[in-house]
Target: Acetoin utilization protein AcuC
Amino acid sequence: MSPRAAVVWTPDFLGYDLGDDHPLDPVRLDLTMRLATGLGVLEGVEPLVPKPAPDEEVQRVHVPAYLAAVKAAPDMPFGVGHGLGTEDNPIFAGMHEASALVCGGSLLAAKEIAEGRADRAVNIAGGLHHAMPDHASGFCVYNDCAVAISWLLDHGFDRIAYVDVDVHHGDGVQAAFYRDPRVLTISLHQHPMTLWPGTGWPAEAGEGPAIGTAVNVALPPGTGDSGWLRAFHAVVPSLVTAFRPQVLVTQCGVDTHAEDPLANLGLSVDGHRAIYRALRDLAEQAAGGKWLATGGGGYGLFRVVPRSWTHLIATVLDRDVEPHRPLPAGWVAHTASLTGQRLPSEMTEGRDTSYEPWTEGADRVDTAVLETRRMLFPLHGLDPDDPRD
Model:
């Protein structure tokens, strides 16, 4: 384990609960921490316990009227607007407190890095990347990613790279920094013609002084491990390296998995493990080793999320889990009591995650890559048609 890596966790994160039938079930967090503990990933690690973010910190991103609406919502049965009380964003008791706690978790991770106590930090409860300044969106009430980035910008950092690997476009974070040249936002997601929120086109490239600092790779439905990794390595390392960030912030949603019920990409748990290792390498090579990782989407509650995010925690801690490691019997028994699904037996799905480095080709992934490269690479002094860039 890296002596300078931190895990942010409290069981109180489970209070961010949108209801029994809602896809964003906090059981995925509980099962992840149980699995990481059962495998010894967290042995000797004392998780950092966050406090709810104060209003003034949440208001880095969100307008005061929206905070007031979130606080009032549980006592307003007919709704308060601002995207609250919808099917995606139902109102629940303690909504403000639970959402502020998630923000507090990502703020604590940012502070650990900024104040030199850690080089890496992970908050799997974070990654609520769709929340907008004045409304909830896509299961997200407060945008902890944007709040943490804003805090970092005021505490010694002036070049931050944000990489979002969720299946859905990282629209809320992009919107927060769309005119801020200090933040490079990169989102790899399923094509907006085929998936909510319908944004994240390559032409969305930033505005004013920030032109070129919003990057979107729109992947065709069905893209699997090798295609996804091919696209990532064809776009992300070159742009991040050219941007020269002081810290890498990532949203590590795992709804890209082939079994995820809300989207249509085809990645595996093995692909997720490869992504986290690539992000760790990127932080080491381009951001001085500074890496703040958050969770995000992921609705394969029992078979997918716990394994994938255990790999994430292990990667942050430099305690990589061998893919064929058996799942602990106690974890399997506990999880079996919660679901009738057939459970996996190992930390792998036996998938080959090798990929061919990008060259200008004719398949759908290469077309997406080339569209993004031709839009963004010249703005960073890179050649979009040269595979070496």
Q: What stands out?
A: The first strand starts at residue 5 and ends at 7. Residues 95-114 form the longest helix (20 residues). The CA atoms of residues 237 and 266 lie 22 Å apart.
